[in-house]
Batch of 2 targets.
Target 1
Amino acid sequence: MGRITVRRKVTRITVGGGAVRREDVLAVEEPLEIRVGGTALAITMRTPGHDFDLAAGFLVSEGVISRGEHFAAARYCAGATVDGENTYNVLDVTLGVGVPRPDPSLERNFFTTSSCGLCGKASIDAVRTLSAYTVAEDPLRIDAELLASFPDRLRAGQDVFEKTGGLHAAALFDGRTGELLVLREDVGRHNAVDKVVGWALALDLLPLRGTVLMVSGRASFELTQKASMAGIPFLAAVSAPSSLAVELATEIGMTVVGFLRGPSMVVYSGDERLVSDAARSAELPSSREKVVAE
């Protein structure tokens, strides 16, 4: 599993039962500097793996790109350190012909931590990004019973979490068939979503009409915005959404479901997209023209 996990000696203490020295597995967290055309744009703390997808999804989230052809290439920078070593922690993206370079105001001279994707942005006006896609008119309808199956399938696909207990996950499901299209893990919930969006961009699947984004933690404003930037009409989370996430979702016509656990869920916006078994007989066909399995 390479740099995704590391082994460390730990001491497990049980009150009344003594201490045991053993080896444990930890999820790796390392910085990734994202450059565009040689110019540094951001540094994010992430779990190594699917870095090109992460960079692509980040650029979609920031409104820099919105189509597969906008992302021409990416490469790890050789000689990233003073002694010429390639750490695979500096990634330079080449944009497609005619794609404008990122606005200088997007350059972030600080770390985006694995716990908070928006740290350092001063106000909500500064973080709100307009999407190239609208989700309000997406005809997606999904049965609540089908939706309720997604958390267990998300959890079953978290291979690294199974070993470490320390990673978030994001998965994209086809809302009509329930097919799991892609799943990504990362120490940062926002990075996991960026990796999902970047995967879709590489396959030229944006906008992601008729899909459900399932996340393992809470539904924050940032994750709602990232879903919007990718044209995803439905965000589901095993934990609670924030007030700002619900406000944004209501404004743009996105469905947000929280506390999705077992047969229970709470719908915070867009409840018209949840239908019963009886209503499924009159279900609209999926608007997705192509479904690509990972």
Target 2
Amino acid sequence: MVKIRAFRTLENALRRMGFVYVAGVDEVGRGCLAGPVLAGAVVLDPDRYIPRVCDSKTVTALERDRLYERITREAIAWSVISVEADEIDRINIHQASLRAMQRAVLSLAPLPDMVLVDAFRIPEIPMAQRRVVHGDARCTAIAAASIIAKVTRDRLMLQLHGQDPRYGFDRHKGYATREHLDAVSRFGYSEIHRRSFRPPSLFDKI
């Protein structure tokens, strides 16, 4: 796995244009069979550089935990919002992801005056935003948001594994691994599984 450090180039350019609080936003858990989708939002302090921030998918769990502690300690503002499986099933995963990101942005204090979003455009937020393709690899604020969302979701899935260890959530975190599919074939769906996510082999397991 190649680790590519994100940069503050875009955030710094926006600050020179007059934006004060530049937030990065990203979501995790979009492709899972079980558990919530989470969105993180972060306004980094331009005077407190955090080294080694990069896309959460390219660093180890230990590195993510260390970065999480520093980001949440030193950021101007941060938030993580989850949308649970039942809401995902009602409105679909795309809308659930957008809703999580919207709520994460609006939970920041102070509110940002510019939002940088990985790949999407967030509906119904009252501030400027910019869509950044591959933003979690290119933009430090978005990468920081991906890290705090990923760490929060992984910790949640560990808690859910403790409540129901049959599915192996501590290992696959709800993604559609062979182990997970085999467990669903054996035990059926749990309360935290997304009924709208049904691989063909699981059509009779809901």
